[in-house]
Amino acid sequence: MRVNGFAQDGYEHIGLVLQELVDSGQETGAGVSVWREGREVVRLNAGWADTGRTRPWRDDTLVMTYSLSKAFVTLAALVAVRDGALTLDEPIAAYWKEYGVRGKERTTLRQILTHRAGQPRFPADARDLDLLDEDRLRDSLARAAPEYAPGTSLGEHALTYGHLVDGVLRAAAGTTLGAVFGDVVRPALDLDAWFGVPDRALDRVAELEHARPEWPEQLHAAPWLRIPDGALDTGRTNSPAFRQAVFGAFNLHATASTTAAFFSRLTAEDGPVRQLLGPELHAELLASQVTGHDEVFGTRLTWTLGFVRDKGKIAKGGIGGSAAWWSLRHGHACAYLTRRMDDHTRAARIAAALGDDLSVVGED
Predict the structure, then answer these.
(1) By residue range, what is the domain housing residue 261?
(2) Domain-located, residue 177
(3) Looking at the domain assignment, is residue 119 inside a domain?
């Protein structure tokens, strides 16, 4: 299967790297997009969008991005802050009364957005809940004690991030994560990205597949992904019901081009993200908030409100291999979105070809 698309002068080598990934079998379906100075300089499609290998990957192929989704959840939360429904640093229990129990009385939205709320996974009593039972999953977080005192430790809230923000939005703003993203964030940023894929776009969605049957159990983050069951079950995540649901921590479906375009405008003072949030919240979004050992990532890193940041990039990746970043050093943005769930070596090779380093390094 030949890689197709375009790469402008000076970027032809990106296509060669992607072709090598396809030829070696490391990649079976992916999109790569690079933006620089307001224009797309690379748009490449590799492999197939389905496990039966009947649908070639196209410019408009949507794929579930896993934790890359969290960056867009953050934007929905900050829209509510912009509108005065709540602040970053007051206890969310002032609005979400049921949440303010068992040591969570002083938990703030900032702690949630920087993965310090002490709820990196759903509690054990949520084990038998259905993956799409959003009301009961959200309620389980409200009732549970945190695993550590909020603000005292760090660990990506792997599956819980979206449900926590959704709970805050429902209580403080009388709306939902899906509504704020779909009605405010998505149109303001002109995103071909969806929490809840509409009927008209379902035929564009790529089918996820594991690189190896044992892959899910080999993950460092596996203990944080087991409750509720099904987050890594492709039979479940490939279903229309899941694609059309809102599971904010990981089921945003997006194209590579729209994702890279978003990152290319992320820091711009005249860009759509700043226009959406205003100067103060835009600065908060991008500022380094906390540096430490993230127990779920298993490494030292720096979180902003929703992104990982170091001296070279502002980035977010998703388990399974998708990643996107803005290069602070080189002034370009790149998205590598894949349906073949494996590690991040493929995105890292594309990054290296661009002169970037996807290693996660915490700022000091």
Answers:
(1) 4-67+207-217+251-353
(2) no
(3) no
Q: Is residue 318 part of a domain?
A: yes
Whether the pLDDT of residue 363 is over 80: the answer is no
Share of the chain above pLDDT 90, in %: 96
Which tens digit of pLDDT belongs to each residue from 15-72? 999 999 999 999 999 999 999 999 999 999 999 999 999 999 999 999 999 999 999 9
Burial 43-75 (b: 16+ CB within 10 A, else e): bbbbbbbbbeeebbbebebbbbbbbbbbbbbbb
Identify whether the C-beta of residue 285 lies closer than 8 Å to the C-beta of residue 277: yes
pLDDT at 118: 98
How large is the angle between the packed helices 70-82 and 161-173, nearest 10 degrees? 20
| 20: helix, strand or coil | helix
Query: Is it the case that residue 237 has pLDDT exceeding 70?
Result: yes
d(C-alpha 261, C-alpha 24), whole Å: 29
Record the tokens describing residue 246, joined without a space. 């809102």
> Per-residue pLDDT for 362 more than 80?
no
pLDDT of 164 reads 98
CA distance 147 to 142: 13
Q: What is the mean pLDDT of residues 78-83?
A: 98
Question: Mind listing the pLDDT tens digit for each residue in 93-145?
Answer: 999 999 999 999 999 999 999 999 999 999 999 999 999 999 999 999 999 99
Q: If you write DSSP's letter for every residue of 276-306 in order, what string do you get?
A: HH-HHHHHHHHS--EEEEETTTTEEEEE-SS
DSSP secondary structure, 210-234, as one string: ESSTTGGGG-TTGGGS-SSTTTT-H
CATH number at residue 316: 3.40.710.10
Residue 56 in any domain: the answer is yes
CB of 302 closer than 8 Å to CB of 286: no
Domain count, the chain: 1
- Single out the residue of 313, 317, 360 nearest to residue 342, CA to CA: 317
